[in-house]
Amino acid sequence: MLRIIRDLIYFALIIFAIYLFAKTEKYNSRYWPEVIKIRDVNLADDDSIIYQSDTTLIPVNYIGSIDFRSVNPEKRKDLFIQHLLPAIVITRERLLDDLHHVEFIEERISKNKTISDYDSTFLVRMKLKYETNELDELKVRVYPHPVSLALTQAVLESGWGTSSIFRKGSNIFGIMSFSNEDPRSHIQFDEGDDERFLRTYSSVLESVEHYYLLISKVSSYQRFREKRWEGGTSSELLHYMGSYHESDQYAEMAQSIITSNDLARYDNVTIDPKYKEILTLRSFLMKYKYFDNQ
Fold it and tell me: Which domain holds residue 193?
């Protein structure tokens, strides 16, 4: 009798081990993206802006806007940086997660392993979005440049948040529109000029995401992207931004802003782990019935 019970226990353990292996393999066979839990914050006034540290960041999405022209000039610079920083860091973290996803797929391909439907769909979408069929080129295009460079360009293009297009259309980077299908606003710098349009956005986060995407696709930034992929700092990358602005002093002005405001200290800021959600094997096993139906 005891032998029968022992054999049944052994058999049950073997079945459980097979089950666990199958579920573990299912978990490992696809990429599980990192989810950032973003807090919506209504901008009632400039006191609504959360002051962030230069090490960890609370991911917030500001709803509404404030007029930085009315903010005390002594306070305006720091407030503008704090207002914009979450959107840039959130976008950078999402891009890095996309990059890791591409690398995950690339590794499975190199090992002749099957690619899940989820990963295949993701890869097709990314190739279309970044307009390339080559994985090596896709990684170069997805890889984001430093936070300090994005902050600097935002400062230059929006005049520390005082520009009309930033106030009315959340366009931080002075991005032009060349299609009447875009949400956009008409501008006229000088009388008699041809019609020009600037993009408008529903939020600062949308503006930042589009800015990174444009630099990742436009052919004139090819050398910039290559240097970025090599790990170039903001100061080094500035020399490859000639296509962004007509001014010969653009790189010099940008470098001055980086240095005088110590923006490089934000290059290594990360999102507070409390606001990140990553599916672990344990949580996957606990919810496997749900995921089996996806």
Answer: 33-278
